[in-house]
Amino acid sequence: QETGNAEVRFMQLDLASLRSVRAFASAFLRQEPHLHLLINNAGVSAGGTTEDGFSLPFQVNHLGHFLLTQLLQERLQSCAPSRVVIVASRAHCAGRLRPDTLATLGRPPPGLLSTFQDYCDSKLANVLHARELATRLQGTQVTCYAVHPGFVNTELFRHTPLWLKPLFLPLVWLFFLDAAEGARTSLHCATHEGLEPFSGRYFADCRPQEPWPPARDDRLARALWEASERLVGL
Predict the structure, then answer these.
(1) Given the residues 119, 145, 202, 225, the one annotated as active site
(2) Which 3 state secondary structure label does DSSP give 83?
(3) pLDDT tens-digit readout, 143-174
């Protein structure tokens, strides 16, 4: 009603439930013959565990999107040229994923700042996901991009601890982008012509930028992909 576009359709999807992801993908593929653009945009920073036994941030921010993209990949290829945009974050710089730690992938990391570390790990996973996806989709006319939207004032921060809110939230209101500004780089990667040579790259401020060195590690990207496949049952 707000857009005035009668073609907008709501379909329920809960990334914290792999069962819901599979149900959504099945319903979408039955009802919609075309898919040219997939934007994996959801994100949470809260602690907790999902019904699948994974940490909430890591499943919502990475594993749920990974499974969804895999289930829709064939349709993306049949409708090519098409694009996948994965909303990551500059917080990937603090991610600690390594090939020797992937055995515990999806479990909350230890320590006082466990939820923050989990969020950063999931954002590093987003950048690596785009990198490996681009490698695997070479020659298909499906391209993909990881995006840092900027620091955006959204409901992502509703789970900030109560003791921290008086210190943190004024900074959010003063210095962070609003949602429309934060969508610019995602929309750039979704719609701008001529980005195909940059498939797999990390974008910020509507241009490709170099991510943190671990996010450029092809061995880590491949190992994360294989571990993610195992965890979501592919």
Answers:
(1) 119
(2) strand
(3) 999 999 866 556 665 565 554 555 555 555 55
Q: What are phi and psi of 229, to 5 degrees?
A: -55, -45
Annotated catalytic residue 202: no
CA 206 vs CA 149, 189, 202, 209: distances in Å? 9, 7, 10, 9
In this structure, is residue 2 part of a structural domain?
no
For 185-230, what is each residue's pLDDT tens digit?
999 999 999 999 999 999 999 999 999 999 999 999 999 999 999 9
Residue 5 lies inside a defined structural domain of this protein: no
Q: How far apart are CA 156 and CA 233, in angstroms?
A: 28
Q: Which domain holds residue 170?
A: 35-232
Whether 15 is in a domain gets the answer no
Does residue 187 lie within any of the structural domains?
Answer: yes
Rounded to whole angstroms, the Cα distance separating 96 from 55 reads 15
Measured from the Cβ of residue 88, the count of other Cβ atoms closer than 10 Å reads 31
Q: What is the pTM of this model?
A: 0.88
